[in-house]
Specification:
Blueprint: E1 6-10, H1 17-28, E2 40-44, E3 51-52, E4 58-59, H2 66-70, E5 73-76, H3 90-101, E6 105-108, H4 113-119, E7 126-127, H5 134-140, E8 145-146, E9 152-154, E10 158-161, H6 166-179, H7 181-191, H8 216-227, H9 235-241, H10 246-257, H11 261-279, H12 284-291, H13 296-307, H14 311-318
Parallel strand pairs: 1-2, 1-5, 5-6, 6-10, 7-8
Antiparallel strand pairs: 3-4, 9-10
Helix pairs in contact: 1-6, 6-7, 9-10, 11-12, 11-13, 11-14
């Protein structure tokens, strides 16, 4: 089967317009004069047309599930929220499995992964979805290996994309696989987006916040540590400040935060580094020192391990000179 020529986009009443529009933009616009091979997009639904968006306008959809019998590539944008708002229609599940068995490629965009999960197409596979829905997805689909840190996961015949704008990354990835890097780059330039983004979804998630603890000594220690990330924050030193043995401190810490002291400190330091990279012009050595990493090499190592990108790339993406904070 030749991919990238026949694209079906499945939408629901109350669908998210952005995710639906991305494949229409990537494959639906005629760019033959720019050297991009022609593709055809059909938007389809099991729901009666017109479909509401919940944003003040509706959309008329011309196709039903017959489009899935026609398509070589099927995309599932984000369905209505919250989950599970309703069961995935059995007609759609049946059509997806028939398409999968005949060799069609199926991809979800953002929380569209919930549809593939409900259909059983992700069981035993690695997948991703919007980072906000990580806990719910794991609860609903325990047989899926969820990776919320990446922008997309390519399993060959079944792919999943992360939150909202990662739909662009996944669609351009599919074009790159089907048509080559030059065509994907041409489309990316026309859309004024990078053909490939550095890092993963983790760089967009909120900084980890420890759960509240009824232990006043531990809460005070956490607050002090968060404000003194450039100090020695080993388990022994933190336990001493909390007037506990290291073993007792580690146990109470895990009960209160759900993680280990070392992991908590690491994520707090990375979160602080993110903030400094966003709002200051400090050099990497100074950022590393203020966050407790010591050297820029150590900062780069841990930053990449946690966020999947480099401090320099992160600053280029998220930095804003007019927001630079005053430093002394």
């Amino acid at each position: 089967m030749r991919f990238g020529e026949r694209i079906a986009v499945v939408v629901f009443d109350g669908f998210a317009p952005f995710e639906m529009a991305v494949p229409c933009e990537v494959w639906g616009i005629d760019r033959v004069d720019m050297g991009v091979p022609r593709s055809e997009v059909r938007v389809c639904s099991t729901d009666a047309s017109p479909l509401s968006t919940g944003l003040g306008f509706s959309v008329v959809v011309d196709h039903g599930m017959e489009a899935l019998r026609w398509a070589d590539t099927i995309l599932i944008p984000a369905p209505p929220k919250p989950f599970p708002e309703r069961a995935v229609p059995s007609e759609l599940i049946d059509a997806l499995w028939k398409a999968h068995r005949r060799g069609a490629r199926i991809a979800s965009l953002c929380s569209g992964a919930f549809v593939l999960g409900a259909a059983g197409l992700l069981d035993g596979r690695r997948a991703t979805t919007h980072w906000m829905y990580t806990d719910l997805f794991r609860q609903m689909f325990p047989h899926v290996e969820l990776d919320p840190a990446v922008l997309y996961v390519d399993n060959g015949s079944v792919l999943t994309g992360a939150g909202t704008a990662a739909s662009i990354d996944l669609c351009l990835h599919l074009v790159r696989m089907d048509r080559g890097a030059e065509v994907a780059n041409t489309i990316a330039r026309r859309m004024v987006v990078p053909p490939h983004r550095d890092g993963g979804q983790a760089q967009f998630t909120l900084a980890p916040v420890p759960r509240e603890s009824s232990d006043d000594d531990l809460r005070a220690t956490l607050a002090w540590a968060a404000g003194h990330l450039d100090h020695d924050l080993s388990v022994d030193s933190l336990a001493k400040r909390a007037a506990m043995s290291p073993r007792t401190f580690a146990r109470r810490f895990k009960d209160a935060t759900g993680t280990t002291p070392l992991q908590w400190v690491l994520h707090q330091r990375v979160a602080r580094a993110q903030h400094l990279l966003e709002v200051t012009d400090l050099g990497l050595e100074e950022v590393a020192e203020r966050c407790g990493f010591g050297t820029s090499a150590t900062l780069r190592q841990h930053f990449h391990r946690v966020l999947g990108t480099t401090p320099g790339s992160y600053r280029q993406t998220f930095g804003g000179g007019q927001l630079a904070e005053r430093v002394s």
